[in-house]
Design a protein that fits this description.
The structure is a single chain. This protein is of the alpha/beta class. A five-stranded parallel β-sheet has the order 2-1-3-4-5. A five-stranded antiparallel β-sheet has the order 10-9-8-12-11. It starts with a strand and ends with a helix. About 5% of the residues have low confidence.
Length: 243
């Protein structure tokens, strides 16, 4: 089970990391001093738990938690803070727990045991709140925010050096993922890797245009754009489309 810590006080972060390692089976995958850095990390990485301070730079803990609560895959959030007054808001966004500084080792230990039990129970029974993908939802990145969209809203994606550009009807998003990595996050029965640089939503194809060397161009509905099918993908595409 993977976790991250978002805490800008070095000593507090070190103490918390020590207690987590001493009293749980969680792997601390990363530590952050800055809320925006944590949000960028979560764009490409999945964790089960976020241990979150409220008073952190760039994006405070409450705003970060609000962003996380809209994820297609929702990690558990544990607030660990010196501020009592945010407790009500924390539980409105379904935080798992709210622990006040200075740390009580017994309190941390009890929380970790409860947290491990909740994750294990959710994994066994598929209960609401377990860390699992939400079918048909994809996290996309735009203007320093993570936007959750229905996969069906995506028309195509294209490789742009080390990032992937994702196109919906009215928006373009940039993902810090290779196109191969992004493809694994999409419903495989709906999205086809038609070219080394392109993924296409099969339900958005308006016309299939024969092209040179027995390949095709795919004209998409609503967009003035055509996606190529590479020669190596033609046979698979014909089978999918029953051509």
């Amino acid at each position: 089970m993977r976790a991250i810590i978002v805490e800008d006080e070095v000593l507090a972060r070190q103490e918390l990391a020590y207690l987590i390692k001493a009293h749980s089976g969680f792997e601390i995958a990363a530590e952050f001093e800055d809320g925006l850095d944590a949000l960028k990390y979560l764009q490409t990485e999945q964790v089960e738990v976020i241990f979150l301070d409220i008073n952190v730079p760039s994006i405070d803990g409450v705003l970060l938690a609000h962003n996380i609560s809209r994820f297609a895959v929702k990690p558990y959030i544990v607030f660990i803070t010196a501020y009592k007054e945010h407790a009500a808001e924390a539980f409105e966004i379904e935080a798992f727990d709210y622990i006040l500084k200075p740390y009580s080792e017994a309190r941390i230990q009890a929380m970790l045991k409860k947290l491990e039990g909740a994750i294990a129970a959710g994994s066994r029974q598929g209960k609401e709140g377990a860390v699992k993908p939400s079918s048909g939802k994809v996290n996309l990145w735009k203007n320093e925010k993570i936007i959750v969209v229905d996969a069906d809203e995506i028309y195509y994606a294209s490789a742009q050096e080390k990032t992937t550009s994702v196109i919906t009807k009215g928006e373009e998003y940039s993902m810090s993922l290779s196109i191969s990595e992004f493809h694994t996050r999409l419903p495989q029965e709906q999205f086809f890797r038609c070219h080394r640089s392109y993924i296409v939503n099969l339900s958005k194809i308006k016309e299939i245009i024969p092209w040179f060397n027995n390949t095709y161009l795919l004209r998409l509905r609503d967009l003035e754009f055509e996606v190529p099918v590479s020669r190596s993908k033609v046979k698979e595409f014909r089978q999918l489309m029953r051509l």
